[in-house]
Hints:
The chain is mainly α. It has helices spanning 5-13, 25-46, 59-62, 69-80, 114-119, 134-137, 152-160, 195-203, 208-213, 225-228, 230-240, 253-265, 277-291, 300-306, 310-321, 337-350, 355-358, 364-369, 371-380, 402-412, 420-427, 439-460, and strands at residues 120-121, 142-146, 165-166, 193-194, 218-222, 245-250, 359-363. Helix 7 packs antiparallel against helix 21 (420-427) and helix 11 packs parallel to helix 16 (337-350).
Amino acid sequence: NETSPSAAIVKTSMTTTYSSAPIPPKFRTWLETFFRPYNQRLYGLLGPEFDGVFDETPPSLLEDKSYKRTQFHEFLRRKQAGIVVNPASYNGSHPPVHGPLPEARHVKDQSLPLYVRQHCDLTGVDSWMLPQSDWRVRSPSFFILGAKKGGTTGLFNTLTSHPQVVRGTSKELLYFVPKRFPFWNKDQIGDRVRVDPARKALLQEFPRQLLRRNETVITGEATPDYIMYSEYSSQAILCTTPWVKLVVLLRDPIDRLFSHYNYLTDPSRAARILPNFDVWVKKDIAILQEFGVMPQDLSRTSIQAYMGSPEERDGWHRYQRALDGPWADRPFVRSLYALQLEDWYRNLRAVGKDPSRDMRVLLSRDVQKNDHVVRDLFKWLGVNVTSATNATPMETTMPHHELNRRKLTKARTKATPTNFSATMKQSMITTYTSAPIKPEFRKWLETILEPYNRRLYRLLGKDFDGIFDPTPSPSSA
Length: 477
């Protein structure tokens, strides 16, 4: 209240005697232009009630056509593009800039990686790598990419049992699945990603107010399709959220495939009527051969000769673009981990990221057996594991998060630093209603998958060498 006695005292104490000449109007405008990005950064930190508090401009300056707010917007677009501000170039006629104004459709900042300039439409974006508001970088801060039936739900539930890790509207948003992602230019999968609207829509899926209030909270999601649509989901993610940390969970390829089959035929769900497991797998392999993802001859020698060929790569990308049909479940290719991770590794490097630093590849069996694996993952995500013991559950104010909040409140009261692996193991229990895999058919699958597994070992490094090699039977030992 400006009429209160206390306000009068404060106003009197803040009176300053100015002995210098007034600020020249044009120089004041230059200062306003220079400070505007920093003020916007402050608004993002303090919240919407402070939005625009320092944006006042004297009416006399607004009458000057050279200094209308359109000039401010031009300067901001240059600043957002990373063009250097040069105060020495100020001549009283325009804001200090150096370099040409970026095109409106796509910012051509030569300092950005070539992949970003070719695949990401950054119109209206303040920064490609790190948005100005810290809470936006945590919304989200991690993705579990897959693999399907590899334990992603169990790992996600384990992570979100910690009070510092909160859910979005769903565990599996499917946001960056190519056929669902609505922000391709001209609605063409693989065209440039319109980053600004993609980020704004994604923010609606996470508890923004909670992230603003608490700087220790992170959030993420787990969509197993992201690893499988490796070329196009990686483009959408790296354009829209290049700061996220990526988690991949791998399971024995044959066990994963058999679990996938039982998941689809589980009578407790909306069970599908499928042929026997071996027939189902062979039909899916035939589809991969038709697309050119796998060779017609499935001998080890032929597969090794075909791997990495232009025919394989073209077939793999055509297969990812095929949105509907009997191959929609894509069961067998989900066990060809190298084929998927190669795209992810290549695109991560193309945007200047290091797969060994920005992606964590884990084995389902290690996460189930070794509690330290989950602890290390928490640490890598920036979460204090010891805080899980006494922390109180955090609540989300967003109405559509209420159901998740109630579930998390119950889960977090049970979370301790010693039961993560147990939680993971319990979440990965699969109900197998089909007949077991025939030994001869398992042997046939091992023969086909062996070259692809070797390819995976070379990609991931010596720490993963032999992880999916078949265990010798006692009689052959």
